[in-house]
Write a structure and sequence with these properties.
With 456 residues, the protein is α/β, with parallel strands linked by helices. 30% of the residues lie in helices and 19% in strands. A 10-stranded mixed sheet has the order 9-7-5-2-10-1-11-14-18-19, with helices on both faces. It has a 3-stranded antiparallel sheet with strand order 16-15-17. A hairpin with a 2-residue loop joins strand 3 and strand 4. Helix 2 packs across helix 6 and helix 3 runs parallel beside helix 5. It starts with 21 loop residues before the first strand and ends in a 10-residue tail after the last helix. About 2% of the residues have low confidence. Bound molecules: guanosine-5'-diphosphate, 6-O-phosphoryl inosine monophosphate (IMO) and magnesium ion.
């Protein structure tokens, strides 16, 4: 099945293979920056929203009119009835996918005509979580089998969504199960029974109507001038190549992942929007250089409800890290930032430290360290910033506290990137687009209509 695309006029040839109309919206820190909320806010301006990597390790929260929805796999654009694509860069648990469809159906949100799954995406089988447990990777993963599924992909022994449609699907699944059981036995763990494989195949067969060549679908949509929003999961510092390895996830969360994870040309990317919290959080293991001491951290966790949307684990808060953000801006080519959760810090602190660099071995570092052992020893260099009062119900940037606007100015000066949007709460309507900040080419942001609902 492939969703019906909005009929748009073909673009005029401009010497490029495809018209540049894909905006990448990604996490610029360690995940949970508010991607779900922001993608939902932006989605009305786009025809298609596509996730390019990750799995149900992600938890993207959207609040609409006091009702909470947490999406793990399907892009947050589904809540505005956009065409939603789960790209080839993802690893998908059929069980998690079916549960998500059922959750959306309960809310009256149809998916059959609007969701497509790449035939090149890999599947997470129940035994991938068993392998993860047996391999005991000590980095505090979500335990969803994400790493082992990507490892099978790299090992060329993975199960792809397209395989569901093949007559030898059972053979492919059984080969994966046999390989897993061999490893589990070697590691002294109990094996996975064949009825688990049968259940997995049943779940996978439910996915079949959604599976198609989404790369072809997206390229054809771009040719027709459709506007595409590429949604990331996790954050830049969890990228398998550029993050704080080995305390990272197993996919490319950064902007380049949008091309490889969706099957679109690099020329298609017109903009990259980075989402950052006004502080940082990290869940799971790994160094967080600006981690707050306990009292401050507890305040932020309570005020910001910093608990994982997927696992419920407490997130570890830290002060905003401009040295880290600069790295994220450069790797991703971030042209504008959306700042979320600054309301959380309102009224909590007299002064707010801002990290402007890392000292290591007595010297300021020029580059973000690639070695975790170095990151463990860096000393953040802070500048103090005045705290701000609670935001109240501000709807205009000029009405936000002066101290906060000065904070934003410091961030912009350091990064040389504008903060075009400020989120002041979890709700859709708590999104302020700054009229005083102009980002080249992002005119749709100036016209952002948070009430736009229906498909084009
Ligand atoms: P994601 O994984 O990046 O989509 O983020 P999560 O949904 O895991 O976590 C972000 C949390 O912060 C969610 O509970 C959101 O509802 C909430 N949130 C998003 N933006 C804001 C904001 O500006 N202020 C406050 N107070 N909460 C926000
Ligand atoms: P969203 O999309 C925050 C973290 C895990 C762990 C590491 C590896 O909601 O921002 P994995 O299960 O992926 O192998 O775990 O990555 N992690 C996240 N942290 N937000 C997420 O997603 C995350 N997805 C994975 O906690 O440290
Ligand atoms: Mg999350």
């Amino acid at each position: 099945m492939r969703p019906k695309l909005p009929a748009k006029e073909p673009g005029t040839p401009n010497g490029r293979i495809f018209r540049m109309s894909c905006t990448v919206v990604l996490g610029s820190q360690w995940g949970d920056e508010g991607k779900g909320k922001i993608v939902d806010s932006f989605a009305g301006q786009f025809d298609i929203v596509a996730r390019y990597q990750g799995a149900h390790n992600a938890g993207h929260t959207v609040w609409i009119g006091g009702e909470k929805t947490v999406l793990h796999l399907i892009p947050s654009g589904i809540l505005r009835q956009r065409y939603c694509v789960l790209g080839n860069g993802m690893v998908i648990s059929p069980l998690a996918f079916n549960l998500e469809l059922a959750m959306l159906a309960k809310k009256g949100i149809p998916t059959r005509e609007t969701v497509a799954v790449s035939n090149r995406a890999h599947l997470i089988a129940p035994w991938h979580a068993r392998l993860e447990e047996a391999r005991a990777t000590k980095i505090g993963t979500t335990g969803r089998g994400v790493g082992p599924a990507y490892a099978d992909k790299a090992d060329r022994i993975g199960i792809r969504a397209g395989d569901i449609l093949q007559p030898d699907f059972g053979k492919i699944v059984n080969a994966s199960l046999r390989e897993t059981n061999r490893e589990l036995m070697e590691r002294g763990h109990g094996t996975v029974l064949s009825n688990i494989a049968d259940q997995f195949m049943d779940e996978a067969e439910n996915m079949a109507p959604f599976v198609c060549d989404t790369g072809e679908l997206l390229r054809s949509a771009l040719r027709k001038n459709c506007e595409l929003l590429a949604e990331s999961a996790q954050g830049t510092m969890l990228d398998i190549d550029h993050g704080t390895y080995p305390f990272v996830t197993s996919s490319n969360t950064t902007a380049g992942g949008a091309c490889t994870g969706l099957g679109i040309s690099t020329f298609s990317i017109s903009h990259v929007v980075g989402i950052c919290k006004a502080y940082v959080t990290r869940v799971g293991g790994g160094k967080l250089p600006t981690e707050m001491e306990e009292t401050a951290g507890d305040k932020v966790v309570e005020a910001g409800q910093e608990f994982g949307a997927s696992t419920g684990r407490r997130r570890r808060p830290g002060w905003l890290d401009l040295f880290q953000l600069k790295y994220a801006v450069e790797i991703n080519g971030i042209q504008t930032l959306v700042m979320t959760k600054a309301d959380v810090l309102g009224g909590l602190f007299k002064t707010i430290p801002l990290c402007a660099g890392y000292r290591y071995g007595g010297k300021l570092l020029d580059e973000y360290p690639s070695k975790h052992s170095v990151l463990e020893q860096v000393e953040p260099v802070y500048t103090e910033h005045a705290g701000w009062p609670e935001f109240g119900d501000c709807r205009e940037y000029k009405d936000l506290p002066q101290a906060f606007r000065n904070y934003v100015r410091k961030v912009e000066d350091y990064l040389q990137v504008q903060v075009k949007v400020v989120s002041t709460g979890p709700g859709r309507e708590q999104t302020i687009v700054r009229r005083d900040a102009h980002v080249a080419g992002l005119t749709w942001m100036d016209d952002l209509d948070l009430n736009r609902e229906s498909a084009a």
